[in-house]
Amino acid sequence: MDALVIHAPGDLRVEDIPTPAVGAGELRVRVRTGGICGSDLHYYQHGGVGTIRIQQPMVLGHEVAGVIEALGAGVTGWSIGERVAVNPSRPCGVCRFCQRGLQNHCLDMRYYGSAMRMPHVQGTFRQEMVIQAGQAHRLADGVSDAEGAMAEPLAVALHAVNRAGALLGRKVLVTGCGPIGAMVVIAARRVGAIRIVATDVMAQPLRKVATLGADETIDVAGQPNALARYGAEKGQFDVLFECSGNQHALRAAFDVVRPRGVVVQVGLSGSEFTLPFNTVVAKEFDLRGAFRFHEEFGVAVTLINQALVNLKPLVSATLPFRDAGRAFALAADRSQSMKVLLSFD
Q: Could you give the 3-state DSSP secondary structure of residue 2?
């Protein structure tokens, strides 16, 4: 089968790789649609994410949906031809964090399309893949492959919202309106936030999130002082979701979050932040990180299946995987795209 293999920055090739045999408890899935994630872009543009670098050729991708082609021995409850979203996370299940229900912190995690391990964990941008049956989540009739492929980023957003605690009746600020930030807006609205303000440095993503549930959008590049009015009386927001991975966005938001507000850092940065901890102390902020997900993947698929969230407006384009260069260039252009998908049919 063919797969998209990254060798070095800008060196993404379509290569023929073998399909593993289907073992006991496994499924073979024909991949139909995959979403290009920010981490895929970092591997393509820079050869790594933060301090993690590509050290050997690696199949990219971790956001896919497809159809079951074969069942391994002992697999029950599945049929050939069923459509599924694939959970890219494979925690070991036995380490101390897995045993405590913190599978996203597994000590022996295998996450598709990641160079964190050696050898690297090969990704999902391929025509066929073999997965554990527990990684498959059934897609309802009428749900598109594109929506199924977006279950993974929705799960990331749901985990971030879970980390914030109860949002019912809360005023929320979201900084950074890429796909994750946009889905945080969707999720926060779903669980009862009464006001959501979203910021970005570009107009296109702000126009999109305005249709997804944001009550107000602010282009902080064109209106650098527009947030200032929310700084009255020590800040008006109860919860901040920082999704840009930008130190300046986080620092500016500190001025408008109220004392004892919750700050959830979702976006990753290529370098460490320097934070004004005197402000953290004086305003008694509750700082929380949000990393990947676990049970939220199944919740994401359920929300999609039951039409409780609408992710279709996020799709900017779907291109053939053999035209990956053009697809990655479009995905990197935030003035034109929100979510770019690859078709493997």
A: strand
CA 320, CA 344: separation in Å to the nearest integer? 6
Handedness of CA 69, 75, 76, 77 (dihedral sign): negative
pTM across the whole model: 0.95
The CA R_g of the chain, rounded to the nearest whole Å, is: 20
What CA–CA distance (Å, rounded) separates 331 from 335?
10
Residue whose pair of structure tokens reads 């690859």 in the numeric block: 342
pLDDT averaged over every residue in the chain: 95
Closest CA to 256 of 231, 281, 221, 276: 231
- Can you list the domains of the chain with their CATH numbers? 2-150+311-343 (3.90.180.10), 156-289 (3.40.50.720)
Give the CA diameter of the chain. Answer: 64
Residues of the chain with pLDDT below 70 are 270
The structure tokens listed for 305 are: 């299946």
